[in-house]
Every structure is written in C-alpha cells, then in structure tokens.
Amino acid sequence: MSDTPAEGTTPDRPDEAAADESRANRRKVREGLVLSVKMDHTAVIGVVDRVRHARYAKTVQRTKRLYAHNTDAELKPGDRVRLQETRPLSKLKRWRITEVLERAK
Fold this sequence. Notes:
Layout: H1 16-21, E1 29-39, E2 42-52, E3 59-69, E4 80-85, E5 93-102
Parallel strand pairs: 3-5
Antiparallel strand pairs: 1-2, 1-4, 2-3, 4-5
C-alpha cells in the first residue's frame, strides 16, 4: 500500500479550519428601493431585474417584492438599500438589510 490517500478523499490537514474561515460567503446580495415600512421590524423592498425577452429581444423590467428584516427604524420609503440573503425569519422574510446606500429626498 502507498502512503497517498485514496482517490476522491482528502488527507487530514491541520489547516482545514483556516480554510473554512476563508471560504467565500455565498449568500445573495441585492439592491433595491424601500416600498413600505409599515410592519414591525420588516421592510418591503422592490428589486428591479432587467431581462431580455426571449422572442422580441427587448429588455424588460421585472420587479420583485422582497421582505427584509429591518432593525433600523429610520428607514423611509424611497431609500436605496443593500440586502443580503439569510435564513428564514418568518413565512415570507428571507432577507436582511445590510446597509442604506442612499436616503430618500
């Protein structure tokens, strides 16, 4: 038998824990406009996605309403925010607000 590990397996390395910490965060990040802040700790964010129409090759805007956890009570409709995907926080809420990019005028 040789000292090399079997094919498809990795040898035990002491730096495995360090590799896990340097692993990239694969959570989705979106930017959108605040549409509503009428719920407690929740904001409704409109995210615009521009897609190309399959047949007519024209660019079409599709808006998706995302429910995001809002710890900052100072948000107002019209603010531009950055969202990050998170674990399910309620029936519809799967995003959290990471930063406010631009305040409403």
